[in-house]
Structure formats: C-alpha cells, structure tokens
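Progress note, sequence design subtask.
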C-alpha cells in the first residue's frame, strides 16, 4: 500500500532555503521524534533543555558543542547527544549544516538562539 504523504526529502535544498542561522525547520517526524535541519555560524547562547535530549548530526562544516566541562567537536557524519538538562553552547566557526532530533522545536531565545540570528543569513 502506497501512502501519498510519504516522500523523500532533499535536505540540502531545505537547508539552502533557510534564511536564518540557528533556526530549525521540521523535515519529518517518526515515532514521536521531530527531525529538523538547521544551519549555524558563530555561537548560540548557553542554555539547556529540561524537557528533551537534543541530538546533533553534522552534515557539513564543523560544529563545536561546548559543555561546561569540555568541548565536543563534530565533523560531517558525526553526531552527539546532549542529555536533557545539560547546559551547552553550540558554536560553528564557519557555516555548519546539521540535523537535530528532538521532541519539539528548540530554536528560540530559551533554546539559546541569539538575537542577531533573526536577520537573514544572506545579509
């Protein structure tokens, strides 16, 4: 049986269409988990998520997830899970593109999104 709602997703095309850094776009949902893409440059703010773990899977560029006791550097094809309640600060020295898995959108001020990210990425 074919479900017309099931289609492949071109992640690169979705990322190309993002006009803000550190903003997440939902590209799918499976088993209660949202699959979101984002791109980042510079730094977010220190924050934590008390309601969910946050998984980062880097597609291109380099993402450094700062924790209070160490830095975790992620290159393309690498992933890291930040456990719920753990304070972290993602940094992208240059533009990084990544997939985030979690139960809800976290790209807001409480999720560490910096105020400057609201300006278009192309500016």
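Output:
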């Amino acid at each position: 049986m074919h479900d017309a709602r099931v289609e492949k997703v071109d992640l690169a095309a979705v990322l190309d269409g993002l006009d803000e850094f550190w903003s997440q776009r939902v590209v799918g949902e499976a088993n209660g988990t949202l699959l979101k893409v984002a791109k980042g440059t510079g730094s977010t703010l220190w924050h934590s998520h008390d309601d969910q773990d946050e998984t980062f899977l880097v597609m291109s560029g380099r993402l450094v997830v700062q924790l209070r006791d160490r830095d975790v550097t992620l290159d393309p094809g690498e992933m890291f899970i930040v456990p719920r309640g753990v304070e972290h600060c993602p940094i992208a020295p240059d533009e990084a593109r990544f997939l985030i898995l979690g139960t809800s959108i976290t790209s807001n001020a409480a999720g560490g999104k910096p105020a400057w990210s609201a300006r278009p990425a192309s500016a």
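Residues 79 and 117 are 23 Å apart (CA to CA). Work on this subtask will continue into the next period as scheduled.
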